[in-house]
Amino acid sequence: MLKTPKSLRIHIGIFGRRNVGKSSILNAITRQNTAIVSEFAGTTTDPVEKPMELLPLGPVLFIDTAGIDDEGALGRLRVEKTRQVLDRTDIGVLVTDYSTWGIFEEAIAGELLSREIPVVAVFNKCDLGSPDPLIVGNLSERKIKTLRVSALKGEGIADLRRSLLDSAPAELIDNPTIAGDLVGPGELAIMVVPIDKEAPKGRLILPQVQTIRDLLDSDSICVIVKERELRRSFEMLNGPPRLVVTDSQVFLKVAADTPPNVPMTSFSILFSRFKGDLLTQVEGAMAVDNLRAGDRVLIAEACSHHPIAEDIGRVKIPRWLTQYVGGKLLIEHVQGHDFPHDLSPYKLIIHCGACMWNRREMLGRILCCRQAGVPITNYGLVIAYSLGILERALQPFPAALELYRSSR
Fold first, then answer.
1. What is the pLDDT of residues 203-231, one digit of tens each?
2. Are 45 and 78 in contact (CB under 8 A)?
3. What pTM was computed for the model?
């Protein structure tokens, strides 16, 4: 059975000290032995992920983490992995036992609340006792839901599942679209999909697949062509399409072959809106004008892959930026969930479309950049800007287009 990608699931992080029953809680919710359970503290060493359907909410991803009180050199590494899970958490489940609430719980609760992430505090092992009413009252005043649960006996698990449904942010339930709202039912969109070394054999890359599926779910008509067939496809149509979406690597050719009255953009720019903050990343693209030879630029990729010749992030974008700036830049790369704690050395951060991530993690990175005063943009936006066609690529997005024009 085909599964919903992790990036489109609501992420539910399970946090707490060692041996409070986090893994037992996960197993009870999923009704499976998803995580290893032991009486010895520290059994969970790396985040354990479990995708499932949590009806009526829909597809979710549970992430069981190592204890936040882990010790020693390895323990510190495990805690760091746990903290990385915070970056992609949509709902936080903070597990403790009936008799414990201290600095570790307060630290995680405070971090979740500071990120505006809904928190459910679970007092496990309630078959052995009850939590302090003063602590429960204080948590309730801070808008933290509290539950008494016994994972061992299955008590309170149904209430926990209902609390997770009630805690889900509305914007995650409303199913935002990638491009369907730009096209509409019964209207036509043309997807320009180059088949080159970057394209995996036998299939399309994930942003292309997800955009096509989104259009079909929106009852739109979708035509798929390679860049060499785009001009011919216009000749075959009785009327203009509502939208043309292209891979950013062939921006110039597609812009040249698309009539000026037809809105055109790229998959990457669509994902800037879908996974991130389009307006903030448009501002970041315009920060290219402030770059000078010798400046440090960070290029971040959400997924890890083996770079090939003419790789978009390691070859093409650095080349286009160098040509635009007129001098060599100091370009660094990070992949996956790795991201520098100190962003101050960088003049610009360029991110991929984050198709492999949920929106929470991408918004978290954008927030970190804003707090550090470092502009952030994404692949499609910086490519369009460096090639001089960003205004054309923003045509489908009135607010972003107005922002761009007002800043010129």
1. 788 899 999 999 999 999 999 999 999 99
2. yes
3. 0.72
